[in-house]
Structure formats: C-alpha cells, structure tokens
C-alpha cells in the first residue's frame, strides 16, 4: 500500500500553459555547410518558453538562482504523486463550457511539458519517479488568470 510521504512542492505558475508535442528536427551541418547525417531535435519555441517559465518558478520557490538550478540536489529521491490544474482564459467568442479547443492542447501533452520541467528544476531526479498524475484543464475561474497550479507529494510504501 502506498502512503503520502509529505508535500514536496505546491505553487501556482502564471502564464499560458503549453504542450510538449512533436519536436522540431534540423539536419546537422559541418563547418563547410555539408550535411553530417545527424539530426538535432528541439522543442517548439512556445513549448520551450513555457518549460523555462516552470523551471524559473520552481527555482524561485526553492530560493535558488536559475543559473544554478541544474547543479541543485533533487527535492526528493522518492517516488512522487503530482496534481496539475491547468487554467485557461476563455475567448469571448467561445461558448464551450470546457476548454476542449484544439488550440489549448491535449491534457497528456500539457502534463508532459510540466513533468519534464520539474525534472529540469530538480524537483525529482527524473520523471520516471512520477507514479501517479491527476490533472484537469478548465476555464479560469476569475476570467483573468491562466497558468498551472501544481502540487507534488512524495510517496512511500507501507510495510506488509
């Protein structure tokens, strides 16, 4: 049986949450401009900006300079449970009761970007430590604030 091992992190990160979907691929060229046969892959720009914003918010929460976050010790070395609440601004023209428009993105890809950012921010060693995720996306309750509320708990196994 799994037990709650304690709250590791809880904060709200303002901004437009972005998905981590397909990566952009670029052919690698040598100094003479010739193709090397290798490919360089990278996040799409909006995805990378959101991921950096999440890392910066966690670094600030931890009181660590952003440029030093990669050298920091992980906040936990245990398995974790993560809860994510994605809030979006509803366009005036949108009458849908829930944010299911394609421009917002799939919940699994929204999660992926945040979970990877939490690895970058050294909340945990790797997102393979995440054993449970609970997430939802909704329109902003106040109509003015968008972002993600996130909480991370360590999980311990009870004996027997």
Architecture overview:
There is one protein chain. This protein is of the alpha+beta class and 160 residues long. The chain has one domain (2-157): 2-Layer Sandwich (60s Ribosomal Protein L30, Chain: A). It is built from two helices and six strands. The protein has helices spanning 45-62, 107-120; strands at residues 2-14, 24-29, 35-42, 79-88, 130-139, 147-157. A four-stranded mixed beta sheet has the order 1-6-4-5, with helices on one face. Helix 1 crosses helix 2. It is globular and about 60 Å long. The mean pLDDT is 87.
Task: Throw out a few tags for this protein.
160 residues, 60s Ribosomal Protein L30, Chain: A, 2 helices, alpha+beta
Mean pLDDT: 87
CATH architecture: 2-Layer Sandwich
Helix content: 10-25%
Rg value: 18 Å
Low-confidence segments, given as residue ranges, are none
């Amino acid at each position: 049986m799994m037990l709650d091992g304690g709250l590791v992190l809880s904060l709200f990160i303002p901004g437009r949450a972005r998905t981590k979907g397909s990566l952009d691929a670029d052919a690698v060229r040598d100094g003479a401009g010739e193709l090397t046969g290798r490919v360089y892959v990278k996040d799409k720009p909006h995805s990378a900006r959101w991921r950096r914003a999440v890392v910066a918010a966690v670094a600030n929460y931890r009181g660590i300079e952003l440029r030093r976050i990669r050298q920091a010790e992980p906040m936990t070395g245990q398995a974790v449970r993560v809860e994510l609440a994605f809030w979006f601004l509803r366009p005036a023209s949108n009458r849908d009761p829930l944010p299911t428009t394609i421009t917002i993105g799939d919940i699994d890809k929204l999660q992926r970007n945040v979970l990877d950012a939490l690895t970058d921010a050294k909340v945990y060693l790797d997102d393979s430590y995440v054993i449970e995720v609970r997430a939802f996306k909704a329109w902003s309750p106040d109509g003015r604030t968008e972002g993600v509320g996130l909480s991370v708990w360590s999980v311990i196994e009870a004996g027997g």
